[in-house]
């Protein structure tokens, strides 16, 4: 089983984004496998979305609902999804998380509208070190 398979099978992963000054900001999120990447879903104007737009550097680690990791963090590159990709990610989350996923997504859509949340895709870059983009 690959790292991508293991993380995609987790109920929660700790998605860590990085502030301009390099400080890590970890957040537990639902995750689903999306082809060659992991996908998550979040509020469109959240801090993590702003940090991902600025710099796609992230790490992901298996965790519990409270964000306590129970495995090693793996570096990755995150990107914010367009509306069509976000719809696909919502469907994948509904399949994985069943009734709880459907209810959470419905509640979010009622509170925030269709555009109030976005999908996030994370391509793992095992071997890379967060904060080190290499030579320019």
Q: Quick summary of this structure?
A:
With about 140 residues, this protein is α+β, with helices and mostly antiparallel strands.
Layout of helices and strands:
Elements: H1 3-9, E1 12-18, E2 24-30, E3 32-34, E4 37-43, H2 47-54, E5 57-63, E6 74-80, H3 83-112, E7 117-124
Domain Pyridoxamine 5'-phosphate oxidase N-terminal: 7-94
GO molecular function, one term: coenzyme F420 binding
Keywords: Oxidoreductase
Largest sheet data? 7 strands, antiparallel
Number of domains: 1
Return residue spans where pLDDT drops below 50 for at least 5 consecutive residues: 128-136
- Find the structural class using helix and strand composition: alpha+beta
What is the average of the pLDDT values? Answer: 90
Computed over alpha carbons, the radius of gyration is 14 Å
Which CATH class applies here? Mainly Beta
Q: Count of DSSP helices? A: 3
Reading the helices and strands in chain order gives HEEEEHEEHE
Strand arrangement across the biggest beta sheet:
2-1-5-6-7-4-3
Distance between the termini: 34 Å
The name of the CATH architecture is Roll
CATH fold field value: Pnp Oxidase, Chain A
Anisotropy-based shape: globular
Organism: Micromonospora carbonacea
Domain Pyridoxamine 5'-phosphate oxidase N-terminal: 7-94
InterPro entries: F420H2_bilvrd_red/Heme_oxyg (IPR052019), PPOX_F420-dep_Rv2061_put (IPR019965), Pyridox_Oxase_N (IPR011576), Split_barrel_FMN-bd (IPR012349)
Protein name: PPOX class F420-dependent oxidoreductase
